[in-house]
Amino acid sequence: MARVAVVTGAAGGLGRAISAQLIADGLHVVGLDIDAAGLASMAGTGFAGLVVDLTDAGAIAEAFGRIGKDHGGLDALVNNAGTCFMSDFPNIPASELERQMTINFSGAFHCCQAAIPLMAGRPGVRKIVNISSNGAYNFDVFDPPHYRASKAALDTLTKDLARRYAREKIAVNSIAPAMTQTPLFNVLTEDVLARAIAAMPHGHAMQPAEVAAWVGFLISAAGDISSGNVIILNQGRDVR
Ligand SMILES: NC(=O)c1ccc[n+]([C@@H]2O[C@H](COP(=O)([O-])OP(=O)(O)OC[C@H]3O[C@@H](n4cnc5c(N)ncnc54)[C@H](O)[C@@H]3O)[C@@H](O)[C@H]2O)c1
Questions:
Q1: pTM above 0.90?
Q2: Mean pLDDT in each 10-residue stretch from start to end of the chain (240 residues)?
Q3: Within a domain: residue 155?
Q4: Theoretical Cys-Cys bridge with 174: which of 60, 132, 153, 156, CB 3.0 to 4.6 Å?
Q5: Nearest one of 126, 125, 234, 134 to 174, comparing CA atoms
């Protein structure tokens, strides 16, 4: 029986690459996204899409209930769904702050709450990978503070769950990428995007498949001995 993984934000740039990597590694992927057409375009062997608004805790509970019924449990969860709202401090509407935290942090929190009981009794080391961002750590680049804070909160959740579930053999890590070429680039002006890419040491953005390979590594047996880490991927940009 194939191991089962949930990938959130599966229809986005990174989500598609992560789903493809895990399918290639032999897992069955259940992709959660609000984008029904995007999920439908991914239909194929090893992939099933579930349309879920991850800002709705009830909808998340329902989706994982169904996954439990369909698959009898869960081996891996990738909390990848996220966005970056670009209003800058202090002119950030309360509704935008709330939505930023809900999509990037609360959604992942509720997915962990629903996923961990489904991991009980599954063989081997079960895996949670949270997709964070360099924006939580690098203050030279453009990221607005509510985006940074949402990812810092996610990384603290990573460490808490890693500690809490180490003896249950659930490994929890964050991957924090820098500029990766996905539709999320559209939130940036041309000027900001050009400067951010010019700051990448290799002279170009990272590709989704490059980041996905690290997710695949953590979910493979090689990743069994890593937990509680925030893995920064940025071509060495921020080494001082
Ligand atoms: N692209 C980058 O440079 C970069 C850098 C650092 C971190 N990240 C992180 O990577 C992750 C993936 O981003 P991406 O670059 O692939 O962006 P993307 O916009 O291509 O994909 C995001 C996906 O999340 C889904 N989504 C958004 N809100 C949702 C909701 N309420 N319910 C369900 N699904 C929802 C979208 O429909 C989309 O498919 C995000 O968490 C982002 O913060 C990206």
A1: yes
A2: 96 98 98 98 97 98 98 98 97 98 98 98 98 96 96 98 98 98 97 96 98 98 98 94
A3: yes
A4: 132
A5: 134
Nearest CA to ligand 1 atom 17: 184
Reading the block at residue 132, the tokens are 């964070």
Q: How crowded is the C-beta side of 30, counted as CA atoms within 13 Å?
A: 25
Does residue 216 line the site of ligand 1, with CB under 6 A? no
Q: Is residue 47 part of a domain?
A: yes
Assess whether 165 carries a catalytic annotation.
Answer: no
Q: Is 88 inside a domain boundary?
A: yes
What local confidence, expressed as pLDDT, does residue 141 receive? 87
Distance 80 CA to ligand 1 centre (A): 6
Number of domains in the chain: 1
End-to-end, the C-alpha distance of the chain in Å comes to: 46
CATH number at residue 216: 3.40.50.720
Could you list the residue range(s) of the whole structural domain that residue 154 is in? 4-233
> 156 lies in a domain?
yes
Angle subtended at Cα 105 by Cα 28 and Cα 72, rounded to the nearest 5 degrees = 30
Residue bearing the CA closest to ligand 1, atom 22: 12
